[in-house]
Amino acid sequence: MKQKNKKSQKKFTNQTILKFIRVKKMVSGFFKHIYFLIKESDLVLEILDARHPEKTRNYELEQKIIHQGKKLLLIINKSDLVEKKEIEKIKQKIQKETKMKVIFVSAKNKDGINMIRREINAAKGKKEKYTVGIIGYPNVGKSTLINSLAGKGKGRVATSRKAGLTRGMSKVKITEGVYLIDSPGIIPRENQDEFDLFLVDSKNPNQLKDLEKNALKLITHTGIEKICKIFEIKYKKEMGEEETLEEIGKKKHLLKSGGEADTKKAARFLLEKYQKHELK
Ligand SMILES: Nc1nc2c(ncn2[C@@H]2O[C@H](COP(=O)(O)OP(=O)(O)OP(=O)(O)O)[C@@H](O)[C@H]2O)c(=O)[nH]1
Ligand SMILES: [Mg+2]
Fold it and tell me: pTM for the complete prediction?
């Protein structure tokens, strides 16, 4: 018996090691792709989410781009999801901090697209061939932006609400001599916090290890009183996150067979509501 346990332990250990090697290879392959993109590009557009511009910056890659002497432009996408006065505040702050040009766009509504076209054309000058690499966190709208820049009838890249859709690199010609390279969303090595990645839409509820834990964090992040207001729940000062989640379950009739709140279903409901931008 003891022997068997030892054997299965050994098997498990070997599997873990193999898995570790595979993941390590995948990760290093991934970064190799991004470094290749930077090397290939004359200009790199880093796409940020207007709701979380700081949280979606990749400082490590920015340094790499600048270090390689490539031009870098910060594009703040999804500006349709923030108030106009917010946009100006963020713009001033980032421009002051980075001394870099910042352009606000809504790739979905095709707002600000001409401004990017003008920047690319000015940077291209008389060069025959000009390559623009697009980088950013998963789901910030890189592929949507490429399609908006390419316009009708040009090569299109796939987009989706689900984070992590683009898996490889693809090149799209937008005008004579100008090529864009789409890339898979990349999460900085130093930012692997599941809740942070959920907040910026880079992880969908289906990709989270623990729905309830993340829902409780979302309740703290949003504020219990505000959550109660949104769901028309009677707010009590002494209310905690767990109780709030249970109340959401009851309010939305997400119940277990015994009649008590199904907090797992309530958590999924709340997290999905946030990502549909309905938690305002
Ligand atoms: N509201 C809003 N949604 C946008 C905008 N741009 C893209 N989206 C949405 O964001 C989601 C992700 O868009 P993608 O273009 O697939 O994002 P991506 O960065 O290529 O994602 P990955 O390939 O998974 O890294 C889709 O549901 C888009 O419709 C925008 O300007 N405003
Ligand atoms: Mg994509």
Answer: 0.82
